[in-house]
Design goal:
This protein has a domain of 97 residues: Immunoglobulins (Immunoglobulin-like, Sandwich), CATH 2.60.40. Helices cover 15% and strands 41% of the residues. It has a four-stranded antiparallel beta sheet with strand order 1-3-6-5, with no helix packed on it. The chain has a four-stranded mixed beta sheet with strand order 2-8-7-4, with no helix packed on it. The chain is an alpha+beta fold. The protein starts with a helix and ends with a strand. The longest helix has 21 residues. It contains one helix and eight strands.
């Protein structure tokens, strides 16, 4: 009797799960929360190179959107060491527009990668830290 009850409960649970799983879902557009004044919202704040070979391409980029109501200015972007070189847009980013910070890591250095890039803005937040990580193996 116990087996029959357990079997019925399992069948009911699976049936319910299937109904919930098969239920149509409304597709919602992804919204970026808007802030008053200039704002910055990154698509990602960490780039993981994984394991790459010495001399491999060390370029990556961090795409962001001005999710504010006024122009966004990146006043400074600096890395934690000279082996990581960021480049960023010097012109104001208008509300709703996207841009990117490009980062080049010197992959001639063998070992683990754990570097940070500090972004200073006139927006919300005023300062944000981006990270790159991974491992460079010898050729």
């Amino acid at each position: 009797m116990k087996k029959l009850a357990c079997g019925l409960m399992l069948a009911a649970a699976l049936l319910c799960a299937n109904v919930v799983y098969a239920a149509p879902t409304a597709s919602k557009p992804e919204k970026t929360e808007q802030v008053e004044g200039p704002g910055i919202k990154f698509e990602k704040t960490v780039h993981d190179y994984g394991t790459i070979q010495q001399g491999a391409n060390g370029d990556c980029e961090f795409v962001f959107t001005n999710n504010g109501t006024e122009p966004l200015i990146l006043s400074n972007v600096r890395s934690s060491c000279g082996c990581t070189v960021p480049s960023w847009p010097r012109e104001p980013i208008m509300p709703g527009k996207k841009s990117a910070i490009k980062v080049h890591y010197d992959t001639h250095r063998v070992g683990s990668i754990a570097k940070s890039i500090t972004v200073s803005t006139n927006g919300t937040p005023e300062r944000i830290v981006l990270s790159i990580r991974g491992t460079v193996t010898p050729k």
